[in-house]
Design a protein that fits this description.
This protein is of the alpha/beta class and about 300 residues long. It has helices at about 10-30, 45-60, 75-90, 105-110, 125-130, 140-155, 170-180, 195-200, 250-255, 265-285, and strands at about 5, 35-40, 65-70, 95, 160-165, 185-190, 205-210, 225-230, 235, 240-245, 260. The two termini are about 30 Å apart.
Length: about 300
C-alpha cells in the first residue's frame, strides 16, 4: 500500500486564502482590520526567523502586523506592562508572546497575563479549561491545523478510533480534546505506554507528537490508517543535517492510507491557523459571525 501524501503546504495556502477573503470582507463591510501583535524577547535565531515569517504572512492576508522586539534582559514587570497595553488596545485582536522566553521570565505568568479573548496561541489557562469542557475557546494552532486536515481528508471523523502519542499541553492534550469534540474515540498514549505499538495499531487516526525522531515506525500503523506527524526534529545523517518527524516516513507510508510529510505537512498549518485564530478573535470581539471553516 502506498499512502496518500497530505500536502500541508498546499492546504495552508487554501486556509490563508480563506483568511484573506474574510479580512477583505471585514474591512469592506465593517471598516475593521484584524490586528496581530507578536512579542519577541531576546535574540533566539529560530524565533527571529519564525516571527519574521509570521509578520510577512499577516500582512499578506491584509491584517495589521505589530512586532515588539525586546532585549533579553527585559524585566518581567516591563513585559507584563506591554501585555497590559496590548490587552487594552482595541485595534489589537490577537497577542502572541514567542516562546521560549529567557530563563528569568516566568512563561506561565506571562501567557496567563494575556486577555484570553486575544490569546491566539490558545495557551491561556482559561482557554485550556474552555476547550476541555467543550466550550468556545481559542484553540492552539498546531492541533487546530491537524484537525482541519483530518476533516478535509475524511469529511466526518465521527466514530473513528484516534490515538494521540504525546501528552504535551501544546499539542497532545488539546489534540485529544479536539478529536473528542468531533466524536472520535480517543486514546492518549506516550513513551511509557505498555505495548505502545499494539495500542497504535488500533488507530484509524494516529497522531505522532511524542518529540522523538522517527519513533513511530510502520509496525505501529494499522493498514490504511491516517498518520499525522507533528514532530520536527533535526538529526545528523550521512554527514548532513536533516529534518525528520516523529514517524519514520518510509515504513509508515508503506502501511498507512494517508500521511503528512516532514517538512511540508503539519508545520505550514501552524502559522495559517494563527492567522485564522486572529480573524476569529476579531469577529468575536466585534459580535460578528465567525469565519466558516476556520475554527474548531
Amino acid at each position: 500500500m502506498s499512502a496518500v501524501i497530505i500536502d500541508g503546504k498546499a492546504f495552508a495556502g487554501k486556509v490563508r486564502g480563506k483568511v484573506a477573503a474574510h479580512v477583505a470582507r471585514l474591512i469592506k463591510d465593517h471598516g475593521i482590520t484584524p490586528g496581530l501583535a507578536v512579542v519577541l524577547v531576546g535574540e533566539d535565531p529560530a524565533s527571529e526567523v519564525y516571527v519574521k515569517s509570521k509578520g510577512k504572512m499577516t500582512v499578506e492576508v491584509g491584517m495589521t502586523s505589530i512586532e515588539h522586539k525586546l532585549p533579553a534582559e527585559t524585566t518581567e514587570a516591563d513585559l507584563l506592562a506591554l501585555i497590559a497595553s496590548l490587552n487594552a488596545d482595541p485595534k489589537i485582536h490577537g497577542i502572541l508572546v514567542q516562546l521560549p522566553l529567557p530563563s528569568h521570565l516566568n512563561s506561565e505568568l506571562v501567557i496567563n497575563a494575556i486577555d484570553p479573548a486575544k490569546d491566539v496561541d490558545g495557551f491561556h489557562i482559561s482557554n485550556v479549561g474552555l476547550l476541555g469542557t467543550g466550550q468556545k475557546s481559542m484553540v492552539p494552532c498546531t492541533p487546530l491545523g491537524c484537525l482541519m486536515m483530518l476533516r478535509d481528508h475524511y469529511g466526518s471523523l465521527s466514530g473513528l478510533n484516534a490515538v494521540v502519542v504525546g501528552r504535551s499541553n501544546i499539542v497532545g492534550k488539546p489534540m485529544a480534546q479536539l478529536l473528542l469534540g468531533d466524536s472520535c474515540t480517543v486514546t492518549i498514549a506516550h513513551s511509557r505506554t505498555k505495548d505502545l505499538a499494539a495500542v497504535c495499531r488500533g488507530a484509524d487516526i494516529l497522531v505522532a507528537a511524542v518529540g522523538r525522531p522517527e519513533m513511530i515506525t510502520g509496525a505501529y500503523v494499522k493498514p490504511g490508517a491516517t498518520v499525522i506527524d507533528v514532530g520536527i526534529n533535526r538529526i545528523e545523517r550521512d554527514g548532513k543535517t536533516k529534518l525528520v518527524g516523529d514517524a519514520e516516513f518510509a515504513s509508515c507510508a508503506a502501511v498507512a492510507g494517508a500521511i503528512t510529510p516532514v517538512p511540508g505537512g503539519v508545520g505550514p498549518m501552524t502559522i495559517a491557523c494563527l492567522l485564522a485564530n486572529t480573524v476569529t478573535a476579531c469577529c468575536r470581539a466585534n459580535g460578528l459571525p465567525e469565519p466558516e471553516g476556520l475554527t474548531a
